[in-house]
Amino acid sequence: MAGASTSSGARAALVLIGKRLASSLLTLFLVSVTIFVIAQLLPGDAAQEALGQSATAEQVASLRHEMGLDRPAPVRYATWLTGMVSGDPGQSLVASMPVSEVISSRLPNSLLLAALTALVAVPVALAIGIGSAMNRGGRLDRALNISTLSMVAVPEFLVATIAVLVFSVKLRWLPSIALVSDEMSWGDYLRGAAMPILCLSIVVIAQMARMTRAAVIDQMDRPYVEMALLKGVAPVQIVLKHIMPNAIAPIVNAMALSLSYLLGGAVIVETIFNYPGLASLMVNAVTSRDMPLLQACAMIFCAAYLILMLIADVTAILANPRLRAQ
Fold this sequence. Notes:
mainly alpha
């Protein structure tokens, strides 16, 4: 009987995960349509940007024909989407090279920046969130709440500006521009990327810490915690051995939501510090009206966000038997 119940629960979990995956794929398709439509609404095009304002209408029309910009929008969308699915997002209209090659030179930098930011932000946020929850209502909790709320309220460009004024202009500890390259040593890279990592970490830490605090406090109000306290179990042991396993699903969801901020916040931070990542590449694509490159970058960001949300959903399903019963 127990084996049948376990098998039924596993099937229910797989069905629910399959539904989440299908929903993510449908969302990604709708996002692709939205991205394509918005890209077409931008004023000007790559041909006009490449030739400049002094070009004649005939020259612009000829270049637009060479770039395939004069084809009907549904045909261009179908061609682009087919290429994206097959791993060929097309040709960059400005760089005159495959979009995949342009992106491959920048994507590792963005992934490394996100990984280092997560490496800094996740442990700090968990420590702040758990510490704040354990001291609920105390001075430490109030101080951390005010600090994290202030950090969430400050926009990225203001954080970056303050960081430059303090660490670059006043203290002269760090460069104001992220000058990084593949030939640099790890020490030089960390020094060059310290400012973007710092600015991205601040808001990520604040968001994740607040959601972690809420998840831990929710579990602290459960009867099993009161029973453990009555038995004389130390508060630290209660949090680590009892609360954290039960709060893992909301905490992972909080981590996914907070880390997804890197997708949007990186656009501003990479541009301010001239970091050679995917976000700044997308900004350059908007400026030059390089639609295939812009659409591919936007799809990568959206796919990464959906993957984070899917991981959070799967973790919640596997950790919570009640979700599998729905």
